[in-house]
Design a protein that fits this description.
Blueprint (H helix, E strand, L loop, with lengths): L3 H29 L22 H22 L8 E7 L4 E7 L6 E7 L21 E12 L2 E6 L4 H10 L9 E3 L9 E2 L2 H14 L4 E6 L18 H12 L13
Parallel strand pairs: 1-8, 6-7
Antiparallel strand pairs: 1-2, 2-3, 4-5, 4-8, 5-6
Helix pairs in contact: 2-4
Length: about 260
């Protein structure tokens, strides 16, 4: 039989190994299986630890069903699928994401709208990391993330060139980022949250049309219907952002809204 001294040393060694290994085990578990609860919307960039899906594999899962849901709305708008151009408009006050499309030789037409499922912040631009603001401005889409912790997501091109310049002038060094349109999650930190089915449609449409043909307008409210007041504590350059949004939104028809799911 093992003497008591040797047994004591072995137990001590096993305990030490457990202490050393535990952080690594916990890291692998939370990264590969279940993200920690504080990793919310602004942290939805592609995760190098997750390689389960590609854009193509995601489209093989839900692309056909998403297109079949989109087709009636495109037919009603008298638009081809995919369209030549996509414009999406996120309205903070209305808590709605509107989809517009354009044929090669046509005007932008309203297609459908998606309700926000969660949001944070208030009227006014995003200024820094952690302010929980949905940005306001005109953006491109940088990439599609097929491995988001909120199903799938689209990376909005915040901060844009104008915001980077204003940040330098104001001395703001951390403007934040990882602003997404994504599926359902328990919280958000400046992203636009829609249902998983809705983000599947947007993800599929963006892939089919091409990210270079897609723009995102994020506005405090529907500026076609009435002007927005610049918040008292917002920077002076917010007036320029709102002016540009008014100009961009003037190209869009004012729809009679029926939100997806109604």
């Amino acid at each position: 039989m093992m003497n008591s001294t040797l047994l004591t040393w072995l137990l001590a060694l096993l305990s030490l190994c457990a202490v050393v290994a535990a952080p690594g085990i916990a890291f692998m578990w939370t990264r590969a299986v279940l993200p920690p609860p504080d990793r919310l919307a602004e942290k939805l960039a592609p995760d190098p630890q997750i390689t389960r899906h590609t854009v193509a594999s995601r489209l093989s899962q839900f692309g056909e069903a998403a297109r079949s849901r989109l087709q009636p709305a495109f037919q009603e708008a008298n638009l081809p699928y995919p369209p030549h151009e996509i414009v999406m408009v996120g309205l903070k006050q209305e808590r709605r994401l509107e989809l517009y499309g354009r044929a090669l030789d046509g005007e932008l037409q309203f297609v459908k709208a998606y309700p926000f499922q969660a949001w944070t912040g208030r009227m006014g631009p995003k200024l820094m990391e952690g302010d929980r603001q949905i940005p306001e401005g005109v953006y491109g889409v940088e990439y599609l993330n097929p491995n988001s912790i909120a199903h799938v997501s689209l990376k909005i091109g915040y901060p844009n060139a104008f915001e980077k310049e204003r940040g330098q002038e104001d001395g703001r060094t951390d403007l934040g980022g990882d602003i997404m349109i994504h599926g359902w999650t328990n919280g958000s930190q400046g992203c636009i949250v829609v249902t998983d089915a809705d983000v599947e449609e947007i993800f599929t449409l963006a892939s089919d049309t091409g990210l270079g043909q897609m723009r995102i307008l994020l506005a405090p409210s529907d500026l076609r219907r009435e002007p927005a007041s610049v918040p008292e504590d917002a920077p002076l350059w917010t007036e320029i952002v709102y002016r540009d949004l008014v100009e961009e939104m003037a190209r869009l028809p004012i729809p009679v809204i029926q939100v997806a799911g109604d």
